TrEMBL record:
GO molecular function, one term: thiamine pyrophosphate binding
Organism, as annotated: Ancylobacter defluvii
Origin: domain of life: Bacteria
Residue span(s) of domain Thiamine pyrophosphate enzyme TPP-binding: 412-553
Listed name of the protein: Oxalyl-CoA decarboxylase
Designated gene of the protein: oxc
Ranges where the Thiamine pyrophosphate enzyme N-terminal TPP-binding domain occurs: 23-139
């Protein structure tokens, strides 16, 4: 008699003798044992009951309208907590919908685990056409850090433990865990099942740098006339906030935060070089990268952006293979940021000369010019609003509520908000990251609200918002303190394109005069239409005070934006002139 049949036929006498458990419960117990408190997902065969049971067992289960958004919520949960965020999906199409978020998490070094139910191995492998048939493990593998499948309920403990360790150790990233439908109803002796579970000990161990590597780096740093520290989102992730602050303040080296590292030290800090970005990239002679890669976002460490003067790079990263990825790293510091920066701090305390007044003065002067220029533009009170006047209002909101979380996506809406809105606390700015991907908005907003309980302000281009906009229902359903501001300029970059043939709308434009606020009202949330900076500020304040789900349609001049925001130069140009 099979184990399942035995349960069905069991009389009360046998029940009393052997307590049984099954795959469903072992998955839940394994997650709980490892401190997983929340699952983000979309239900359906074969994981509907898994979600229900997880909820019944006290895990918070947040159900979304699309798996990509659930995946993005899990990914940002991972970034914010250093524990893997969990996304749960059905097979083939649900899995594929979640996979974009898993790949994006891996690209951004966020720890997350995509758990997908899958079809019967025997049928999938013979390609006999099962319900939602797909070889999910094979497809996931190249897109994440690690991928595992569990076939026997006794192995669930090991499978979950491996997934957790793979996600958070070393360079964090996405992990895929494949759970075939049959696994969930497999029955095992409860005691044996409990013993098979694994609590992951020291999942992301400290990784200390070699003392010789620290010496080498300190020597290079001491030789600098114009040193610069670049903080990346790895530094934000590391949660070594106090050590990083002390190192910067003790050494007196100016710092430049990458987008999601803003607020690690306040943007208003005297050593912040954020408002003098081009100057410091060009003129610095030694650059210490802390949890930031020399990828396209830093022009690969070479070319015009970096100027002609010779430059030496020191790099702190947990991933040894990151070194020399684009240019020579004269002093690689492989280790976790907390340990490495603390070693550097000890070195600086042992003897250090602060950077020259000339260097600090050059940066200060440039900052003052740029900030003055910017503040003029922020004060403009034009109707319709342009990006700057609208952002001026939102800058003030974050200044008054520095613990609010800012989610940001779009093109102009992203690039200009990044420059205008000062951040004051670590891990408060969440955005499109390494890929510049659209669609993270509502997933990040939900994940951030659920994980932190803090109010979220999501500043969204109208196009960007559309990628995940249906989750306003999710925000209303869970009554999350999320205020969405849609920068409605009627389209992608601008709202003015036309079809040269006159047949259709232009490729980058949307319905004119749209009222995104009505979408929020449809689900019981609050909607506003804002046409001036004063209105915008007032509506956001109301939303933040009430904590009610709110969407503000901010009417922006369709002519105000530029193609691709700040990165228009990446657009390929056609060399062919069409004959008329
Ligand atoms: P940004 O886009 O902000 O420049 P990146 O995503 O390019 O940042 O870089 C983040 C880097 O941080 C990655 O190379 C990753 O390996 C590294 N990293 C992540 N966590 C840690 C950590 N705890 N210690 C050291 N390096 C880390
Ligand atoms: C998954 C390409 C980059 S920015 C953008 C798109 C479609 C939208 C810009 O319009 P928006 O912002 O949001 O209205 P604004 O303020 O300039 O008008 N698909 C994906 N990712 C990306 N990056 C794109 C397409 C893109
Ligand atoms: Mg737009």
């Amino acid at each position: 008699m099979s184990a399942v049949a035995q349960v069905i036929d069991t009389n009360s006498a046998i029940e009393a003798e052997v307590e049984l458990t099954d795959g469903f419960h072992l998955v839940i117990d394994a997650l709980k044992l490892n401190g997983i408190e929340t699952i983000y997902g979309v239900p359906g065969i074969p994981i509907t009951d898994l979600g229900r049971m997880a909820q019944a067992e006290g895990i918070r289960v947040i159900s979304f309208r699309h798996e990509q958004n659930a995946g993005n919520a899990a990914a940002i949960a991972g970034f914010l907590t250093k524990k893997p965020g969990i996304c749960l999906t059905v097979s083939a199409p649900g899995f594929l919908n979640g996979l974009t978020a898993l790949a994006n998490a891996t690209t951004n070094c966020f720890p997350m685990i995509l758990i997908s139910g899958s079809s019967e191995r025997e049928i999938v492998d013979l390609q006999q056409g099962d319900y939602e048939e797909m070889d999910q493990l094979a497809i996931a593998k190249p897109l994440c850090k690690a991928a595992f499948r569990v076939l026997h309920a006794e192995d669930i403990g090991i499978g979950v433990a491996r997934a957790i360790r793979a996600a958070v150790s070393g360079r964090p990233g996405g992990v895929y865990l494949d759970l075939p439908a049959k696994l969930f109803s497999q029955v095992v002796d409860a005691e044996k099942g409990a013993k098979s579970l694994v609590k992951v000990i020291d999942a992301a161990p400290d990784q200390l740098p070699a003392p010789s590597a620290v010496e080498r780096a300190l020597e290079v740093l001491k030789s600098a006339k114009k040193p610069l520290i670049i903080l990346g989102k790895g530094a934000a992730y590391a949660q070594a906030d106090e050590t990083i602050r002390e190192f910067i303040e003790t050494s007196g080296i100016p710092f430049l935060p990458m987008s999601m590292a803003k607020g690690l030290l306040p943007d208003t800090h005297p050593l912040s070089a954020g408002a003098a970005r081009s100057t410091v990239l060009k003129d610095s002679d030694v650059v210490l990268l802390v949890g930031a890669r020399l990828n396209w976002l830093l022009s690969h460490g070479k070319g015009k952006t970096w100027g002609d003067a010779p430059k030496k790079f020191i790099q702190v990263d947990i991933e040894p293979k990151e070194m020399d990825s684009n240019v020579e790293i004269v002093a690689p510091l492989v280790g976790d940021i907390g340990s490495v920066v603390s070693a550097l701090l000890d070195g600086v305390k042992a003897g250090w000369t602060a950077p020259s007044d000339a260097w600090i003065g050059e940066i200060k002067a440039r900052k003052e010019v740029n900030i003055a220029k910017m503040s003029q533009r922020l004060l403009k009170n034009s109707t319709p609003m342009d990006f700057h006047s609208a952002l001026g209002a939102l800058k003030q909101v974050i200044k008054e509520r520095p613990d609010a979380i800012l989610v940001n996506e779009g093109a102009n809406t992203l690039d200009l908000a990044r420059g205008v809105i000062d951040m004051y606390q670590p891990r408060k700015r969440l955005d499109v990251g390494t890929w510049g991907v659209m669609g993270i908005g509502m997933g990040f907003a939900v994940g951030a609200a659920v994980e932190t309980g803090k109010p979220v302000l999501a500043v969204e281009g109208d196009s960007a918002f559309g990628f995940s906009g249906m989750e306003v229902e999710t925000i209303c359903r869970y009554e999350l303190p999320v205020c969405i501001v849609v920068f409605n300029n009627n389209g992608i970059y601008r709202g003015l394109d036309t079809d040269p043939t006159g047949r259709d709308p232009g490729t980058t434009v949307f319905v004119k005069g749209s009222r995104y606020d009505k979408m929020m009202e449809a689900f019981g949330g609050v909607g506003y239409n804002a046409t001036t900076p004063d209105e915008l500020k007032r509506f956001v304040d109301e939303a933040m005070n009430s904590g009610r789900p709110t969407l503000i349609n901010a009417v922006i001049d369709p002519a105000a934006g530029s193609e691709s925001g700040n990165i228009g130069s990446l657009n390929p140009q056609s060399v062919v002139k069409k004959k008329s």
